[in-house]
Amino acid sequence: MSVLVFTENWDGKFKKLSFELVSYAASVAGMMNMKVTAFTIGKAADEELKELGRYGAHRVLSLVSPALEVMDNRTWSKVISDLAAKEGSKIIILSNNMTGKALAPGVAVRLKAGIGSGVSRLPVSTEPFTVYKRAYSGNAFANVVLRSEVKIITLAQNSYEIIERPAGAIPETVDVDVDQSLPATTVTSTHKQTGKILLTDAEVVVSGGRGMKSPDNWEPLVELASLLNGATACSRPVSDEGWRPHEEHTGQTGKIIAPNLYIAVGISGATQHLAGVSSSKYIVAINNDKDAPIFESAQYGIVGDAMKVLPKLVDAVKNLKK
Amino acid sequence: MLKQLIFTVILVVTIAAFGYTVNRLIKLFRLTKPAFPVRDWGKRVNLLLKVALGQSKIFRRPVVGFFHALVFWGFCIIIFGSIEMVIDGISGAERSLSFLGPVYDVLMAAGDIFALLVGISIIIFTIRRSLLHVKRFTGVEMKSRSHVDAIVSLSLILLLMVSLILMNTGYLGLQLLSGTEIHGSYPVSRFIAGLLPGLSASGYSTLYHINWWVHILTIFFFANYLPYSKHFHVFMSVPNVFLSRLDPPGKLDNMESITGEVKLMLNPDTAYSQAPAGAVPERFGVKDAGDVTWKNYFDSLSCTECGRCTSVCPANLTGKKLSPRKVMMNLRARMKEIGPLMVKNGQDYTDNRSLVRDYVSEEELWACTTCNACVQECPVNINQPSLIVDMRRYLVLEEGAAPGELKSVFSNIENNGAPWQYPADDRLNWTKNLDFEIPVFAGLPAETKPEYLFWVGCAGAFDDRYKKVVRAFAGILNRLNVSYAVLGKEETCTGDPARRAGNEMLFQMQAMQVIEILKNYEVKKIITTCPHCFNTFKNEYPDLGGNYEVISYLQFLESSISEGKLKLDHRKIKGTGITFHDPCYLGRANNIYSEPREIIKTLSPGLVEMKRNKSFALCCGAGGGQMFKEAEKGDQEIFIERTGEALETGADTIATACPFCMTMITDGLKYKNREENVRNLDIAELVAEAMEM
Amino acid sequence: MNIVVCISNVPDTTTRIKFAEGSSAIDTAGIQWVINPWDELSLTRALELRDDPSSGVKKVTVAHAGPASSEPTIRKALAIGADDAIRVNCTPSDAYYTASQLAAAIGKEGFDIVICGIESSDFNGSAVGGMISEFLGIPSVSSVSGISMENGMPVITREIDGGRESVKVTLPFVAIVQKGIAKEPRIASMRGIMAARTKAVRLYEPVDADCLTEIAGFEKPAPRAACKYVDPDDPGKLIELLQNEAKVI
Fold first, then answer.
1. Which has the minimum average pLDDT: B172-181, B362-371, C26-35?
2. Is residue B277 part of a domain?
3. Chain B / chain C CB contacts < 8 angstroms
4. DSSP A202-244
5. Crossing angle for the helix pair C37-51 and C71-80, nearest 10 degrees?
6. Which of B72, B193, B643, C55 registers the highest number of CB atoms within 10 A of its CB?
7. Going from the N-terminus, what domains does chain C have, and what CATH number goes with each?
8. ipTM, 2 dp
9. Does B513 lie at the interface with C, CB-CB under 8 angstroms?
10. Domain tally, chain B
11. Can you give the pTM of this predicted structure?
12. Domain assignment present for B255
């Protein structure tokens, strides 16, 4: 009986997110006295799979088939539930990212499993199996009992630390049989933003709002983000005005992110914006207005003119790097 | 005899032509909807005397206004002479009205003098129009047709005046030469006669007769030209003033059809049943010329295209597309286009065009701040905002087509009872850490009936800056031991932003809810710090069954001071001066100008006025829903313009009396980097500062 | 083509959620119930397609699993413009149960596309849409940020990490949509409100289905520590704190 953890791969590689998942799975397995099987769909190199083993996976699998090139929700979720049935897994863990949300429900129906979605801590108890998750869009947290025999957890991003617990896994690549009646999705074209650090992946995000006064003032902000190896973001009015690309818009109607550090420059902190960033580990606010609501959600703040503060911050980071 | 015959024939043709025009117009009026019953004749006659006869609105631009007044009064006098000429023409007599004796002398002399004054005024107008660049005469709606129209009218009037003087000169000359009695007195013509070379008797006679015919024929022609010209106002202005909308400008009319529907929805027994037949109108709001009221159409015919409305419109001044003049001209043009086709083919006829979008764009409609400056300026009492809001009502109620931010405002008011996303539970947060209790209706024992409801409003409850203002005012109420209570969490939006933005349905739902809550607590008197809430409670809630004595906090403060109840230490406010920014919703909308000034005058350093103050005050830019949305495209923001004007006074305190104005002026100070040395305070805060605490 | 939009009845997002610590039920007094924001956007997109004569979409039905107290919210959806509605008369206890009920009822209706919002603002479950597709045995596409019609066939935009894809799926299918599917939610016009009062809401009785999860209790989120202010003239101090105290750079 193992804890099954689905670690998505990106062109055969894994990300920090993947290691968080395995670390979490290993901790849960530890609570239940079980082993961890980590698997990915699509080809991944042995070195990459071994990496998963470093964080606690006892078995690491790469499931391949030409029919799995394109993600079709039902096809992939059947592959996952078939694997779970074969492994006898009673606990299945996925990320609460786009892929996890796409696949977990299908697995849940096939295995008649209860889902705890957006879980952010280790299970509160194993008998009954209870998980702690976000509810009412962050206004409350709920302890949810998963009564079914098989349990599915989707883990909220950036909520669990990475723990190295090498378990000596030997990578396996498995050719899987795919139910040919299922695939129904065809991709006709793809458009990718290349080169930049993805907003949703970035650990540090520097974001600008209307208080920046003009699109011409963005240079120091971009420089700060680049020095911190972070991504840039913006509030809704800024993206509506066309000062910054739409992809940078974070907020209730834009991207919801959870970086380690979110620096909000010239952003007042309207509820709709905060809804997109409130799960950030640390929020820093730089704003001219000492009464701006963003300071109520920030751990660190500077009340001052962004145009004067940003260049000084840039210098300070440059000094740090020396 | 021949002259009589010819004259009578021409007169009949003229009257027939005029009759044809009038008949066409009546048929067009029949396409329009009812407006209001014409009552209060006493008030209306007063308006006639003041606005029409007294030219009170024209004099708001004193120099040009004076000359226009001369022309108007001139016309009023000269009309007697014209009437006499018609009687003469038909009867074959001469000077039929001369039996009036000394009165006749006065009338003729006045006519003669005014002919000169009007002539001079017309020459000044023509030079001004042709040689000076007057911004008011330009605009996208002012095509060459308007300019040609103006020049034609000016020329005709000049011709009338010249012909009158020459006519009188001829008459005088003839009478003097033949030694016949001169009926009437003609001081100007006498002088002119002295300047001209002497003529023979037949010369004077010819001069007289030619100019007599020129004069009367010009009048006949002019009379028939006017209905097709912008100068129709010669006929229409006086009646339009008589038929003025008498409601306070801040009041928007209630849509009865919506009231019926809201009542059905709120009643659980009828919530899912069909509306009674006939209760549903063909159209909500105004989409096209057939949807307007007869008064809207009358307004459009009375519009002189003078542009005074547009020249004070805050949206237009800052480069937005809205022009109140254009809206009225568009209605007139559209009715001209589609009206006759509707008369011929039935009211349902469509040419797949409409007033909304094809003539007046959505961008124009959404730029209006409902400040009523246009209403204040219009010399013939046209009401533009009611037509603009009626078009907004069409967009929202029929198409659900409002700017995205206003749609969010509607959702917010519907779901959480405020234009912004804040829960009702937070409505008493402003009372935290006050060193006195704020009485809340829900918490009072059943028998306690406070004298006043202090209506806090959504801004007072949720706007961080305005919370300080309501705290200050509550402190004053507390100090004066006033018997009051607040509704606290039971307060919900009055619906004002919804109504201004055209969502009549939401407004009425909110209003009926509020009225129910107030009924529950038997509220009779309301004091409020927000001019928008004040305006809607006072002027609009009675239509829906809510009748209260509504008091603006400014009125309350002023009377408390003047009655000696509130003692202020006037030395407490330091600085170089206090200037007051009139909120549109107390000022022009409700004629409250003196109270805030009386209050400020009791404080030192005293009041300095901005260039545009009282009824001339420039809007802060936030009304009409603008507070909640991005400004339409323009050159600069209205609030920056107004803050600049305030700073020009040199005052270091800008006093406001409205949460929206305060937000805009404070933003203006930030934008101009003057927050360090200029304060923006509410009147309540100034009073609290000066109170002996 | 017919579209079914699943809607959830949730408390308005500004509502202060109140409960006794550890209680498994929230205090519903004074709550204003609204259409789940993601579902509102789904409905808006479906209506935009229906109102476009070239799309081929003829009817939009809203589907809801909930008790009679949800009626006003269903009427709101009808007022916004949905043609009719179906309601499964039950209490939606968890995602599996709710999805079972909706799938059973929708299965009896004729449809080509089912649209579900990615999550509901009350339980943030992100599961019902995917479960409905599995119960009905039809494909689903997730992270959908755009649906349009080309030559009568749907073209879907699916968000992926760092970009988006244009996707085709066989009909019928379930689209699980997220924000971006419509620019802003539609509001009800006056005529819509008037018509909504008499549009049909078809009732379905619930089928036998299991409830696999249960809320044991709610907890309030931990209060945030107060903000530490740094002197604007010495922003370097902030970098120091971020490095040494917060350890994020």
1. B172-181
2. no
3. 63
4. -SEEEEE-GGG-SGGG-HHHHHHHHHTT-EEEE-HHHHHTTSS
5. 30
6. B643
7. 2-221 (3.40.50.620)
8. 0.92
9. no
10. 3
11. 0.91
12. no
